[in-house]
TrEMBL record:
The record marks 144 as: Raises pKa of active site His. InterPro entries: Formyl_transf_N (IPR002376), Formyl_transf_N_sf (IPR036477), GART (IPR004607), GART_AS (IPR001555). SUPFAM superfamilies: Formyltransferase. Catalyzes the transfer of a formyl group from 10-formyltetrahydrofolate to 5-phospho-ribosyl-glycinamide (GAR), producing 5-phospho-ribosyl-N-formylglycinamide (FGAR) and tetrahydrofolate. (6R)-10-formyltetrahydrofolate binds at residues 64, 89-92, 106. Its EC number is 2.1.2.2. Gene3D superfamilies: Formyl transferase, N-terminal domain (3.40.50.170). Pathway: Purine metabolism; IMP biosynthesis via de novo pathway; N(2)-formyl-N(1)-(5-phospho-D-ribosyl)glycinamide from N(1)-(5-phospho-D-ribosyl)glycinamide (10-formyl THF route): step 1/1. Keywords: Purine biosynthesis, Transferase. It comes from Pragia fontium. PANTHER family: PHOSPHORIBOSYLGLYCINAMIDE FORMYLTRANSFERASE. Signal peptide: none annotated. This is Phosphoribosylglycinamide formyltransferase.
Amino acid sequence: KNIVVLISGSGSNLQAIIDACRNGQINGNIKAVFSNVPEAYGLVRAQQAGIATELVESKYFASRTDYELVLADTIDRYTPDLIVLAGYMRILSPTFVNRYTGKLLNIHPSLLPKYPGLHTHRQALDNGDSEHGATIHFVTEELDGGPIILQAAIPITPQDSEAEVIKKVQQQEHRIYPLVVGWFMQGRLAMRDGKAWMDNH
Ligand code: GRF
């Protein structure tokens, strides 16, 4: 089965998924890594792993609609069974999202529904939360609002530095994203009636 991964940055989650495909935790292959940012280090990770890379930069398109049409057409050339957003920092339109309903995953660095959007770690610390974490969800039209599949929580205190918290959350991300992608590839996970469905057998 085919996986396509979209990134904008370092690609440490991408790396965790590459590793999991290699060691058999995920029964599938990453066919291509897409970035909207030329200097995204994740592109180097992909090349090092022998995976095709595609750079689709929005600035070369007259509108978001044009950008997303080319993005989607290029993605479709790889006939993906699953599209994984891993630190992809652009908001996708409903048209794009609905083209891939049920096969589009995202990871978000908060315990959703808390803190959709940006600066999640800072908000959790500033609010004096005792826990924080990461969420994997199916992508729907609502930003960071699709059905939740899996969350990982870590304890935090207001004394923690933001950098420390980011690091701990990312360690959790690298654990849970390969797990969820693995389930999807096994056919144990799907989106049904707008909810995350899991076969627990
Ligand atoms: C992750 O923390 C993810 O939750 C957020 O962006 C970060 C991406 O990191 N949306 P990386 O590019 O996978 O290293």
